[in-house]
Amino acid sequence: MHKVLEHTILGPNVHLYRFDAPDVAQYRQPGQFVIIRVNDEGERIPLTIADVNKDEGSITLIVQSVGKTTLQMAQLKIGDSIPDICGPLGEPTHIEKVGNVLCVGGGIGTAPLFPVTKAMKDIGNQVTSILGARTHDLLILEKEMKEVSHNLLVTTDDGSYGMKGLVTDAIQKLVDDGGQFDLCVCMGPPIMMKFVSLLTKKLNIPCLVSLNPIMVDGTGMCGGCRVTVGDETKFACVDGPEFDGHLVDFDEMMSRLTMYKGFEKDSLDHFIGQTGCKLDNAIKGDSK
Question: Which domains does the chain have, with CATH numbers?
Fold first, then answer.
């Protein structure tokens, strides 16, 4: 069992959890993830590790409550426990000194980007980070990302904070202003990663993306997380989760992500019907 040590609301439907998981904390490297179950009958879901505290033996997960399992997580209180945290899984990010690194995070994707950005800076790279969100309220980890970056830009779709526009607009502006980058690391919604990959390919900047497709066992056996990278089929759980963004077939991946939408909606509707006000209170922040 893994105890909840902290549960903090970061924004609308965005929750930070710190779990007791000493073995995972000891061996985790930037870019890796865990698979959790909230209860013994629950589904398994993959979540990237946002941070660890080896001395405390804890890991930090940042989750957006959008489906049944993540809404169940929203009801967890400090002191509660979940049965399973399996990991660390996946290949860690290849951290090396390459020069000028551009780290781009969209929405909840800033959570897995944070440890990679920190590691890239710690090894001696010059790091410029771009954070994007639809609106100011949905921006997370700005302070933390500023601390691990040499330069930080923020974009919002509606212009409520930072630069009005998309992260691709900020990338283009940096290049137009004379910025040169040896690597781009991008994490966020698939559609955002697709267009960042297209732009960086045009600009001749290598691009690394972190993929989170449908995943069941996390060991490469089920094949649910298969993605096409170049002319090869890869499994995000064991070959990734990070791949060359210029080679990923994003359209295929996004199509596969919709395969179970009907089942997911039915499960969510049933769960909401059972929980009612209790769930609403948890989402709004009554999680202590």
Answer: 2-90 (2.40.30.10), 100-257 (3.40.50.80)
